[in-house]
Amino acid sequence: MAETEVAGLYVHSPFCSAICPYCDFAVARGRAADRARFTEALLQEIELCGSGGPEGGWAGEAASRGARRFDTVYFGGGTPSALSLEQLGAIRRQLAATFEIDPAAEWTIEANPEDASPESLAGWREVGFDRISLGLQALDDRALRFLGRRHGAADARASVERAREAGFLSVSVDLIYSLPGFDGEWWLRTLDEAASLGPDHLSCYELTIHDGTPFGRRRDAGRLRETGEDERAANFVATHRRLGGLGYRGYEVSNFARREADRSRHNRKYWRHVPYLGLGPAAHSFDGRRRWWNVARWQRWSDAIEGRTSTVAEVEQLTDRDLLLEAVMMGLRQRSGVDCAALEERFGIDPAVGNAAEIEAWERAGWLRITGRRLQPTLEGMARADRLAAEWELPES
Ligand code: SF4
Questions:
Q1: What tens digit of pLDDT does each residue of 339-387 get?
Q2: Atom 5, ligand 1: residue with shortest CA distance
Q3: Which of 28, 81, 308, 329 is the most buried (most CB within 10 A)?
Q4: How confident is the model over 297-339, as pLDDT tens digits?
Q5: pLDDT tens digits for 48-72?
Q6: Phi and psi angles of residue 367, each rounded to the nearest 5 degrees, phi first
Q7: Is the shortest distance between the CB of 14 and ligand 1 below 6 Å?
Q8: Which residues pair with 315 in a beta bridge?
Q9: Three-state secondary structure of 4-24
Q10: Which of 182, 206, 195 is nearest to 245 (CA)?
Q11: Judging by DSSP bridges, how do beta strands 284-286 and 374-377 pair with one another?
């Protein structure tokens, strides 16, 4: 069962030098003093988790399954690359002193191209990161200006080359598509150019315009028109076809790797119900049965740690039915699909029972391929994964 696999560790750093107009993550523009306070609080949170608090859950049920051991560590944000090398080094040392981290663990850092100088990249390698996820987002200046990014296309290209020179074992790049005013041809050119830089892995996300963000307000005022549903679906399929042709297989809705070994080990834990511990503001944790998350505002999170009160905003207790539905949904978003036999063994319920007519219809429509008891989404099926999952019926437990 997935829960018996070694867990993953996530560290959220909330600071960004400026806030992008489409961003709805838990982020803040921090001064040096804020970053110092955050780092100090994070070091304390690691220590508290090691000793069983403040939430207490991780050290209980999950620890009994060996979940204080980790074989992936992922620094995300925000922009973890906005922390100094001293701060990153201190966090790493505290993690290593508190938890049992596999010597062959995958250590990922998210970084923005404007922070990726040769000196910083060498420093991140020295701190111990071996995988880097670079937030390129686009490869031309007009699109980067539209997205409100601080880097230019030349910085984006150079950052990939410099990451290689610094000796990162795996280099991933993030791109965003379906930007209003940028057509499908523009997107294919972006993919071609990104692939020509030779990353090991790509994550391609569709632009989502969230309420309450500057883009959301522009949309509400009629000054920004979201890309239509048909065009977005066409972009999704084109992304997988183009990158597949360039040697990058889409193993999940948004993720592409050259080789199996280049797939994100950390993110795959999220999709397979492997436990994870999240540290820092807004970070989510999962122990196989419960999911809990920290308060989003970094000051409130720091206050809680300094005052030795709980950082947890909410705890969600998941039933077998909840977990099974999630497993179906995550399966439909991955090439590997839904393994009904494995899910029946795990939950005692065959998720296909009660959905036979729909499954047959989806196979006829070309959205699913059925091999034995495995249901694998085709590209067209992956494009509709969330909709298919929403139609899935399970018996009440
Ligand atoms: S860099 Fe990333 S996390 Fe920071 S504001 Fe922009 S989109 Fe959000």
A1: 999 999 999 999 999 999 999 999 999 999 999 999 999 999 999 998 8
A2: 19
A3: 81
A4: 999 999 999 999 989 999 999 999 999 999 999 999 999 999 9
A5: 888 765 444 444 444 433 458 999 9
A6: -95, -20
A7: no
A8: 292
A9: HCCEEEEEEECECCCCCCCCC
A10: 195
A11: unpaired
Give pLDDT, residue 65.
39
159 phi-psi bin (left φ>0, alpha ψ -120 to 50, beta other)? alpha
What kind of fold does domain 320-391 have according to CATH?
Arc Repressor Mutant, subunit A (1.10.10)
Buried b (16+ CB within 10 A) or exposed e, 4-34: ebbbbbbbbbbbbeeebbbbeebbbebeeeb
If one compares 235 and 64, the residue with the highest pLDDT of the two is 235
Please tell me the distance from the alpha carbon of residue 72 to that of residue 62, in angstroms, as a whole number: 16
- Which CATH number, 1.10.510.10, 2.60.40.10, 3.20.20.70, 3.40.50.2300, labels domain 2-271? 3.20.20.70
- Distance (Å) from CA 19 to ligand 1 centroid: 6
Helix axis angle, 340-347 relative to 320-332, nearest 10°?
A: 170
Residues 6+ apart with CB under 8 A from 77: 12, 13, 14, 15, 16, 25, 27, 110
Only one residue has tokens 């925000």, namely 78
Local structure of 44: helix, strand or coil = helix
Cis check: omega of the bond before 54, within 30 degrees of 0: yes
113 lines ligand 1 (CB under 6 A): no
Predicted local distance difference test score (pLDDT) of residue 50: 80
All structural domains of the chain with their residue ranges? 2-271, 320-391
DSSP state of 3: G
